[in-house]
Amino acid sequence: MYSEKVMDHFSNPRNVGEIEDANGVGQVGNAKCGDIMKMYLKIEDNIIVDAKFKTFGCGAAVATSSMATELVKGKTVEEAMKITNKAVAEALDGLPPAKMHCSNLAEEAIAAALEDYRRKNGQAPDESVDCNGCCNSCYHSHGREEDFDDED
């Protein structure tokens, strides 16, 4: 059902936690399944030098979060904005169709964290991000931090 890579990233997730001095933070959720994903990015000179995540959800949500942080590290902001849910799923050697929404969340978490970074740095929003409100990726920028409790 799950690839070895999915199982590895679920059992041994990379980059779990938060970055205290993150300059880009994005949180997304899926109301249907209850998964919540929060991504922290540390960006220096337009390069993502660190990425961490906190995820409340199923094994596929943890695996896609882990892989997403691996995929963005070392990339420019512009390169990271181009990472798609398909790229996340492919990097994990695929996901079952019923779990593809987890890769959508990973893509949306990256985009939300990058939009937060852009907003904090006085940059115009990325017009290529088509927000129709379905992914709730604007939790952080609208002050809805209570939707994800950082307390362990």
From TrEMBL:
InterPro entries: NIF_FeS_clus_asmbl_NifU-like, NIF_FeS_clus_asmbl_NifU_N. GO terms for molecular function: iron ion binding; iron-sulfur cluster binding. It holds the Pfam family NifU_N. Residues 1-122 form the NIF system FeS cluster assembly NifU N-terminal domain. It comes from the Bacteria. GO terms for biological process: iron-sulfur cluster assembly. This is FeS cluster assembly scaffold protein NifU, Clostridium type. It comes from Ruminiclostridium cellobioparum subsp. termitidis CT1112.
